[in-house]
């Protein structure tokens, strides 16, 4: 160790999990600091809620920023230790007896100043050894962070597959009468995708472990080996360079880093002959009372929140700025049958259905299961796809999103409400008889992002 930097000081820059110098250090609420990768692995393996590996204090925050003060101090100490290491007599240049302070990028070797200007190396790219070593540590930290984010993406997709498989089987009875075979086929596809995601997560964890081992190596070994490891990784990640060094990792398949996404099942629309002619017998016209408030922005954000998980240190949910138009029918319905249509084609997020005056007057969440004052069909944009939901209770619908108009059929006599895809003459959803109590008003909320 460098005599100018006391051992006690260097110990303060040591991760309390791996006992090596802090790599991409993060500091949690209790004040203890760890390598980001060590904390990620510790929290993933722990069965209990996130807590400090040392004092066991619960950690409410999981999205940490790099502690740059510690990072810079570690960099200073590593440079000092490398200088001390290179000054040792056994590491001097055998030919010129000078300190090897130059790193040759071509053959991954350390050279003295005279050697780097010689015939063999003068055409190669060179840089100071300390600078090259720190650049390698930074590359390693960045690759580990990126790889961990990919592992967490797979984990989130795997959870979505689990939720959709369960929800699919729970809701299968609704579709069973006309599409049982299609439902079973999609269920098998979901299970197949789960298997692919599980395999990918296993392969990525193996690669991540290899990089974690790299973080324990001395500066010189890191300089000599990291480049080939990075090329090997890039050859297996879509969109990266395709160099093919011969560095196989045990148990990792050749195409392990292809991106299997969580399957979003959708039942095809089933047209119903005579449906629209029958519904138009109950067509009604009415005017709207308009209102826009913060409550209706929550309507879609709450729905989106059901499908986003935040187990990663790097995951975040950015709702963005929303502008919504919400309207209630000026007329209430208490008896008879009524049918109306709503245009939703130009909206990314929308909700149509009925609600009671008691909900209109309250600043209430759309997904409050204790409140049955609204019966709605929602369409919510999530990532690059759309998801249909119903309320009371909140239920995902795995059926194609309607384009153009959505029809709403209210049967006050039976206390039920149905939604139809006007363009395809198909039923989207029907609430059971007796779910509605009256009076109720038509409701629509549409939005753009």
TrEMBL record:
Residues 266-449 form the B30.2/SPRY domain. Transmembrane segments: none annotated. Keywords: Metal-binding, Zinc, Zinc-finger. Residues 15-56 form the RING-type domain. The keyword Nuclease does not apply. The keyword DNA damage does not apply. InterPro entries: B30.2/SPRY, B30.2/SPRY_sf, Butyrophylin_SPRY, ConA-like_dom_sf, SPRY_dom, TRIM/RBCC, Znf_B-box, Znf_RING. Residues 88-129 form the B box-type domain. It comes from the Eukaryota. Signal peptide: none annotated. This is Tripartite motif-containing protein 43B-like.
């Amino acid at each position: 160790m460098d005599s100018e930097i006391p051992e006690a000081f260097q110990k303060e820059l040591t991760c309390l999990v791996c006992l090596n110098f802090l790599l991409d250090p993060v500091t949690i609420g209790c004040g203890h600091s760890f390598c980001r990768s060590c904390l990620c692995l510790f929290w993933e393996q722990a069965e209990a809620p996130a807590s400090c590996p040392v004092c066991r204090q619960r950690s409410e925050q999981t999205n940490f920023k790099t502690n740059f003060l510690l990072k810079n101090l570690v960099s200073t100490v590593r440079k000092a230790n490398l200088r001390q290491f290179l000054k040792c007599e056994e590491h001097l240049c055998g030919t010129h007896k000078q300190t090897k302070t130059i790193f040759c990028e071509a053959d991954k070797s350390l050279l003295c100043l005279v050697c780097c200007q010689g015939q063999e190396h003068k055409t190669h790219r060179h840089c100071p050894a300390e600078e090259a070593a720190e650049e390698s540590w930074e590359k390693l930290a960045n690759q580990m962070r990126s790889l961990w984010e990919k592992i967490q993406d797979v984990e989130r997709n795997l959870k979505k597959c689990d939720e959709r498989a369960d929800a699919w089987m729970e809701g299968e009875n609704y579709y069973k009468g006309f599409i049982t075979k299609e439902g079973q086929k999609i269920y098998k596809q979901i299970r197949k995708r789960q298997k692919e995601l599980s395999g990918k997560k296993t392969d990525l964890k193996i690669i991540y472990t290899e990089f974690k081992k790299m973080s324990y190596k001395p500066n010189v070994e890191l300089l000599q080996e990291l480049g080939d490891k990075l090329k090997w990784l890039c050859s297996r990640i879509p969109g990266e360079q395709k160099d093919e060094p011969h560095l196989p990792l045990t148990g990792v398949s050749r195409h392990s880093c292809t991106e299997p996404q969580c399957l979003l099942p959708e039942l095809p629309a089933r047209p119903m002959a005579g449906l629209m002619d029958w519904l138009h017998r109950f067509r009604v016209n009415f005017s709207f009372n308009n209102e826009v408030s913060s409550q209706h922005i929550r309507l879609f954000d709450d729905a989106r929140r059901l499908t986003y998980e935040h187990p990663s240190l790097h995951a975040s949910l950015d709702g963005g700025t929303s502008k919504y138009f919400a309207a209630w029918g000026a007329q209430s319905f208490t008896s008879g049958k009524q049918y109306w249509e709503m245009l939703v084609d130009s909206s990314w997020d929308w909700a149509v259905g009925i609600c009671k005056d008691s909900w209109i007057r309250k600043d209430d969440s759309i997904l409050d299961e204790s409140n049955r004052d609204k019966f709605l069909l929602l369409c919510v944009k999530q990532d690059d796809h759309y998801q249909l939901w119903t309320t009371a209770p909140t239920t995902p619908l795995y059926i194609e999103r309607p384009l153009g108009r959505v029809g709403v059929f209210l049967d006050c006599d039976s206390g039920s409400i149905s939604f139809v895809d006007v363009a395809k003459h198909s039923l989207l959803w029907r609430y059971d008889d007796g779910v509605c109590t009256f009076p109720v008003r038509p409701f629509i909320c549409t939005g753009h992002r």
